Amino acid sequence: MDFDPGKWCSEHKGMLIIALASLLLTFFFFFPFLDGIILGTVFAYVGKPIRDKFGKRKQLGSLVAAFCIVLPIFIILGMGMIEIANQILLLARNQEAIRSALVVLADQTSRNMAPWMKDTLTSSLENAAGTIGPIASSIPVFHIGRVASLAIINFIVSIPVCYFVLVDGESFVESIISLLPHKEKEAYRKYMSRIDFILSGIFIGTIYTSILGSIISAFLFYAFSLPRPFALASIVFIAGMVPFLTSWVVIIPLTIYRYFTDGIQGATIFFLLSSSLIYLPSELLIRPYLVAAKSSLHPLLVMLSFLGGALVAGLGGFFLAPAIMGIIVGIYQVRREETAKETAKPERA
Predict the structure, then answer these.
(1) How far is CA 25 from CA 29, 93, 98, 165, in A?
(2) What is the mean pLDDT of the chain?
(3) Helices 229-241 and 299-348: angle between axes, nearest 10 degrees
(4) How many C-beta atoms surround the C-beta of residue 52 within 10 A?
(5) How far is CA 4 from the centre of its chain?
(6) What is the Cα 245 distance to its own chain's centre?
C-alpha cells in the first residue's frame, strides 16, 4: 500500500500543530545561540577527518576534533575582536593624541618625499583621523561589550555542539531518513552523499588552510612588532575563507606599511617571509590536497555566499550561507543526473 502524505497529515493534524508550535518555541529560545549552533555544526563537519583517525574510539576522536578545530579559531578571532574593540575605544577617547601621532608618523615617513607629496600625505592622514574619530566615538561602548560577550558565549557553545554532532550526527540524520517511505530512502541518501561531497570542497580544506595561515601570521606579525597582530591574523583567517581574497589582502598593505617605516629592505624581507610562510604553504601546497570538490561549486558563488551571509547574519551567516548554497547545488546536480538518465532510457529502447 502506497504512502499518502495528504491522508497522513489529515489524520495527525493536531499532533502536527503541536510539533510545529514546539519547534517555533524551541527556535525562539535558542535564537541567541544560533551562531554557536551553526558554528558548532560546521566545525563538526570539518572535524570529521580528525575524528575518523581514531577508528572505533568515536567519543575520544570527537573530543579531540572539537578542540583541534574550535580552539585555534576561538583564540585567533577572539583575540582579534578584543584588539579591534580596544582600537575603537582608543580612537574614541584619544582623538587629538592620535591626530598628533599621525602627523609625527607622516613627518617620519615622508622625509625623502617631494614637498607636495609630504603635504598631501599629512593632510590625508589628518582628514582620515578627523573622519574616523567621530564615527568611533558615536559607537556605544555598552553595545560593543554586549556584542563581544555574546560572540564569546557563542564560541563556547560551539564546542559542545561540535562534539555532540560529531558523536551523534550521522545517527541523527539516519533516524530522520528512516521515517521516510522505503522507496524514497535511497534517493535521499544519494542527495545527502552529494551534498556531503560539495560541502567538503567548501569547508574542510578552506577552514584548515585558514587556521594554519592565521596561526602562522599571528606569530609572524608579532615577531615583526606590527600593531594589533591578533586583529591582523583574524583578518587573514577571514580572507583565507573567501575565494579570490586569500592572505594577500593583508600581506600587501602591511608590506607598504613596512616600506614607510623600515624602508625597502625591511619591506622586502617581510614580503618574502610572509609570502613563503603564510601564502605558499596554505594556498599552493595544502589547499589542493584537502579541497576534494573544487569544481563542484563555482568560486564566485562561494565568495558571494561568504560575503553576503556575513553582511546579512554576521558570523553565523558567514558559514551558513555557503552551506545553503552547497545544499541547493547538490540537489540540483543529483536531480539533473536523474533527469538525464530518465531521458536516456527511451532513446535506448
Answers:
(1) 6, 43, 49, 22
(2) 76
(3) 20
(4) 12
(5) 42
(6) 13
